[in-house]
Amino acid sequence: MKALTQAAQNPFPYSDTNRRFYTYDYYLRHTYGGKVAKIPLDAGCTCPNLDGTRGVGGCIYCSSRGSGDFAPQASLTVTEQFAAGVAALSDKWKPVGYIPYFQAHTNTYAPVERLRALWEEAIAQPGVVGLAVATRADCISPAVADLLREFAARTRLTVELGLQTANDRTAEVINRCHTFEEFVRGYRLLDGLDVCIHLIEGLPGESREDMLETARQVAKLRPFAVKLHLLHVLRDTALADLWVRGEYTPMELADYVQVVCDTLELLPTDTVVERITGDGPPDLLLAPLWSRKKFVVMNEIDKELHRRDSYQGKRAGQDDPDHAE
């Protein structure tokens, strides 16, 4: 008798592979009937911790493109950027649809009418099946929340909020320029909308327990989705200066795998995991170099969850004193 494959032994309900967590690929295929591509865009926005409103210098890990390193230049129109993104995929695979993704910097940090025009142009592109808008929770005003609801009524909208950590001490170290309380306040303004929360593992000074406490706090919010990022060092950033001086040491692969698996166990079963790791552009990435091998990282996470006989949500709520069995 043949031994069962890992996929056949997988107890996780939202999976048809050996992945023991709710992958974005699974969500897209079961929502749209096939693979869907996100097309990164740069709207030319800035950030309140760049222009002096909340701070200067930006987050210590951000490049000059503000996490939009894979998007075309903002000097191009949304239509031109979208076309370039679609063309770049044409030799790789043919998706059943596209999601314009306003990724660079803070994409609700502009007048409402300008935002409306940008988003209108984006969802008017051929093959578009949704819209993703990345921003900061302290840049969600009631007027912006109303605009987001307006678009959510017309297309499948996801608002991506960069939290990174629930630890206010760490937020000061990374120059985030807002508190966890402010994050929750902005998150609550988006009640009823699909929100994806971004977390970064390996921030300066954070222990494993600090990272897991962030996971617990996020789990209580029950977001639609999360993205888990590895903190990587990019050239010409404040973090790079710390790394060069020996004041910051990136996570090792084995430690990252353990923290990610612990985090997945704490998240709700029905929270989509849009990203499980990440790296930077090859010409900017300084460390850790193992982050370039994404498939190795993902395979190690798969193997560790299988070794533990675990899966996303296995320990969800167990560390919460208000949780009832």
Task: Explain what you see.
- By secondary structure, the chain is α/β, with parallel strands linked by helices.
- It has a single domain, classed as TIM Barrel (Alpha-Beta Barrel).
- The protein is 35% helix and 15% strand.
- It has a seven-stranded parallel sheet, with helices on both faces.
- Helix 10 packs across helix 11.
What keyword list fits this structure?
325 residues, alpha/beta, TIM Barrel, 9 strands, 15% strand
Element layout with pairings:
Layout: H1 6-9, H2 24-32, E1 36-41, H3 78-89, E2 97-102, H4 112-123, E3 130-135, H5 142-152, E4 156-164, H6 168-173, H7 180-189, E5 194-201, H8 208-221, E6 225-230, E7 233-234, H9 238-244, H10 253-266, E8 272-275, E9 285-287, H11 294-308
Parallel strand pairs: 1-2, 2-3, 3-4, 4-5, 5-6, 6-8
Antiparallel strand pairs: 7-9
Helix pairs in contact: 8-10, 10-11
Strands of the widest sheet, in order across it, are 1-2-3-4-5-6-8
First-residue to last-residue Cα separation: 39 Å
How helix-rich are the residues, as a percent range? 25-40%
- What ranges have pLDDT less than 50 throughout 5 or more consecutive residues? none
**Second CATH tier, the architecture:** Alpha-Beta Barrel
Percent of residues in β-strands: 15-25%
User: Helical stretch count?
Assistant: 11
Q: What kind of sheet is the major sheet? A: 7 strands, parallel
Give the tally of structural domains.
1
